[in-house]
Prior knowledge:
- The chain has 285 residues and is of the alpha/beta class.
- Helices cover 38% and strands 19% of the residues.
- The strands form 2 sheets. A 6-stranded parallel beta sheet has the order 1-4-3-2-5-6, sandwiched between helices. A 3-stranded antiparallel beta sheet has the order 7-8-9.
- Adenosine monophosphate binds at residues 29-30, 36-37, 39-40, 147-148, 150-151, 174, 176-177, 184-187.
- The site of adenosine monophosphate (AMP) has 17 residues, from helix 2 and strand 5.
Amino acid sequence: MIVAKTIAEVRAQVAQWKREGFSVGLVPTMGYLHEGHASLVDKARRMCGKVVASDFVNPTQFGPNEDLEAYPRDFERDCALLEEHGCDMVFYPAVGEMYAPNAATYVEIQDEMPKQLCGKTRPIHFRGVCTVVSKLFNIVEPDYAFFGQKDAQQLAIIRRMVRDLSYGIEVVACPIVREADGLARSSRNTYLNPAERKAALCLSRAVFRGQELVGAGERDAEKLVAEMRAVIEAEPLARIDYVSAVDGETMLPVEELTDGVLAAMAVYIGKTRLIDNFIVGGLKE
Length: 285
Ligand code: AMP
């Protein structure tokens, strides 16, 4: 696997692959990789001639009181996992390679969408995500880009950005990968102590309860949210940020649970903020 630390190296390698006729898939990540990320690489491997992963903890998507400094990092382990899953190149830039000291140009959706759900408590988060993903798209110029349904609002926002800015890139959604006991895999799970790790199961319990209700015919969004909240509120270590049922494209609240509606939550377990969700009618991949 090629390890590229500069934009120039990535551009030269991708240009050569394109001359050779390969399609290129991009898997953007913040590193500390787990089986969730691996599933994106696997899917890219199946769909594309060459697979590029980026491994970059993007400072512009962290708010001033968030966990930028504490965010877990282990590049050697990431390389081993990427190599095992057949990744062809990892882009591992220093912050200075991605952002000039006076960088001041951002990509932002000027609409309600990034202000909903996670945007309520993380006001600059999606501006940072759009900016870095847009930069990665400009650097790699992939044919396909792979994103996890775990970050459902991010996925919807990237789809919107790709449409609004006419990127010729196909965004591919990948299902949520869970631990055996249900917890959605996340680099942030490493913050949890044993008691919190157990308590964190209230998120997936709420998801499974929600899916069960919808499966049994529930169509009232308010009732669904109330039932899911009750599951989480039964856990003393959990503090709800939000539980919402929203339109899967606009992220605006809905009253009726039709196919494509996103039931999403963010919950603090101790100091760790975790997210989980499901789509009514299942994920269209
Ligand atoms: P991150 O490194 O957390 O920024 O995640 C990089 C990509 O991996 C994003 O598209 C995430 O949605 C995706 N991802 C993270 N965790 C999971 C998971 N448990 N299942 C599926 N995709 C995931």
